Amino acid sequence: MSELPIRPFEPEDREAVVALHWELNRHEQTVSGDRALDREAAEACLADDEKQMAERGGIALVALIDGAVAGYVCCVLADGGPFLRADLRRQAYVTTLVVGEAFRGRRVATALLGEAERYARGQGVAALGVGVLAGNAGAERLYQGFGFQPHAVEMVKRLR
């Protein structure tokens, strides 16, 4: 495959990226059982990415294959909190990474993660983080293959 075109998310990408969020929600439903599966939820996910970027700074990128949006990544800047050493507080976080099912296996996710990392390094942050649902083995393999390591465990107790 020739070099994968990656560019900033633009307004004309909105429908394709909402569709990717919707696809991600449906996939994560099979893992967690708690995802909202309507289009409005997918639209809200994109709106949340946009809100976080507006409030904190960040970047949203799309990868293209044959002119179609094949994947999307959103990376925002974050404050790691006062419990961290001062030199480690400024961080970046991948809020969303999704590749359309038709485009999987073509290293789209790796290319998008590479761009997110370049952005984070350019911002001078100390770390790049990402969350993975427990049981999403494919995502864990992807991120570990990219150099991410487990750092914390988030636990949930369902009350209803």
UniProtKB/TrEMBL annotation:
Keyword Acyltransferase appears in the UniProt entry: yes
Name recorded for this polypeptide: GNAT family N-acetyltransferase
PROSITE patterns with a match to the protein in the record: GNAT
UniProt cross-references to CDD domains, sorted A to Z: NAT_SF (cd04301)
Entry annotated with the keyword Chloroplast: no
Keywords annotated in UniProt: Acyltransferase, Transferase
InterPro entries associated with the record: Acyl_CoA_acyltransferase, Bact_Acetyltransf, GNAT_dom
Residue ranges of every copy of the N-acetyltransferase domain listed in the record: 4-160
Pfam families linked to this entry: Acetyltransf_1
